Every structure is written in structure tokens, then in C-alpha cells.
Amino acid sequence: MSNSTSRFSLSKNNGPNQSDPHNNNNNRLEKSESVKQDIRVNLYELILPRSISGDNLHSLLSSLTPLLAVKFSSKPKIEGSSIESEGKPYFVLEDLWESYNEWSAIGVEVPFKQIDHETVAQYFAPSLSALQLYVEDDQGLKKSSEEKSGLEPSKKTTTKLVYQFFEDERPHERMHLINKVSILAEERPYIKTYRSSDISPCSWFSVAWYPIYGIRAKPTLKNIKAAFLTFHNLSAHFKSKNQPKLHDGDGPLKMPLPIFGLTTDKLKRSILAFPKARESTQLNTLLKAADDWLDSLNVVSHYDHNHFVRHGKQWVEEKKDK
């Protein structure tokens, strides 16, 4: 079994100030909510699959974005009707991990367009890099001086960290993502059973993508060493009416789980350098979003992110379109 860091926690485990864990945790979560609103850009246009058109960053993001089967909670029957109305959409975490099953076994194909406009493929294998699960804990009716004075007591809801995992194994020693999750779930079954509606919007995970070779008989990039770390929010509270909905034929409704942050390693001087001005701006937005997100939650033990930042140039020069 991996020696990866995995622990159950009801309190803050990161950050230098431990004098008042409760207040620090609340302040951190309030900050993360604010940062989340600031750093989340509308990436749906960015990630929806479409044919490659010279935009290698778009191709990377769309290829590494999982599509999840979406379910709907049932609402009580409307009075006088025999039909239950459709409730809010959600997904089960097990379905999320299963969406990486094939990718874990054979890698995911990412098409890239070279300078000579020839399209070649590169394959990347995913491994679980980090996971944090937060839940909203209803503290019930708060007894206070207001209650004693006859006023209606206030209802207090707090958010707490219930699980976190950070991978620290070397890339070539890691398990397939789906296998790693199964082992972690032996001790914490809710890693698979939670619904997205059960957990806080602060919940997130990241996936490390390393290049692999010799998978299929197609032209591939040679000697590429670039690796990526994608960040995804786990609690997809679907609120936007304009949110894209994808159907897989006659199968269940599927929706993408967007990449809101990205960290890169060994990107410089490769085909993946994204030379276009628009691409470099988008890349910097994603790079900063990942950094800001971890900072907002005081995450200091994300080994992959720390390694990528130490050994790779994260910020790219934003070129001007001519």
C-alpha cells in the first residue's frame, strides 16, 4: 500500500496559526468562498469538446475534463398530481472516479497541432494527486441571549473538513487513479458514496497527468516531458440556466466537471507552450487560480503542486496579438 498521506480530520490541519482552530477554520472558509468567486472564470466554452483548431490549450482542457452522469433528486408530488417533479441535479462520487477508469488503464489521448499544422497525439495517465472533502454541519438552533429574550434563535451552519489526501509517491510508483480511490474507500466509504449535493463547495480534488508512450498506433510526440495538474471542484451546485448539458446518445444526461485551475511541469520549449496571446492569458488565469485556491484554504502539503512550482516556470509571457 502507498505511503501517501491520508487522514480523517474535523479541524484545520494546515496553516501556521493554531491558536483558535474554530475561528481560523471559519475565516479560511469565508476567504475560500470569496476567492472562489474571484478566480472562477467561465470555462465552459473552454472545456466543451470540439474539433481541434490550432488551440492546443483548449484541446488539453477538453480532453482532460471528465463527463459525469447526472442524476436528479425527486421532489414531493405536487398536490393534485400523480407525478413527482424533477429536483436538483447531482452526481455520486463513485461515478466521478469511474469516469477515470478507462483513462487509468490506457491513458487519455490529447490531440495537438504542430507548427506545420500536422495533428499528433500525446497520451497522459491520471493519478489522484489530492482530495479534500468538506461538509456543511448544521449546528441546529443556536441558543443565545436572543432566545432568552423571546426572539427566535438563529440557525448556524458551519463547514468542516472531514477528509484529506495528498499523494507523495513518485509518479512511476503510483497506482491507477481508480485503484487508489478503492483502497482509500476501504477505510472511508463515503469517498465513493457521497453525493455532490452532500458536500460543501469548498470540496475539491486534483489529478496529476504524466505522459505515457506506446499506447496506440498513431503519430505521437516524442520525448515530451510536460506534465499537468488539473483542479476540479467536487460540489457541483448546478445553478446556471445556461450551463451546457451533454447527452450520450440515448444514455443518461452527462455534464462536464470543469477544470478551474492548472499547474504545469516542464512546459517550456515544448509544443505545449501555447504561443498564442489568448492561450497564454488563459493559461496564466488557470495557473493563478490553482495557486489562489490552495492559498485560500491554507494548503501547504500539496506535494505535486509544490514540486511543479519549484521545478517549472509557471507564469508564461503574455504575448500581444498582431
From TrEMBL:
Low complexity: bias regions: 13-27
Organism in which the protein naturally occurs: Medicago truncatula (Barrel medic)
Name the record gives this protein: DUF789 family protein
Domain of life: Eukaryota
Stretch list, region Disordered: 1-32
Polar residues bias: start-end ranges: 1-12
InterPro entries linked: DUF789
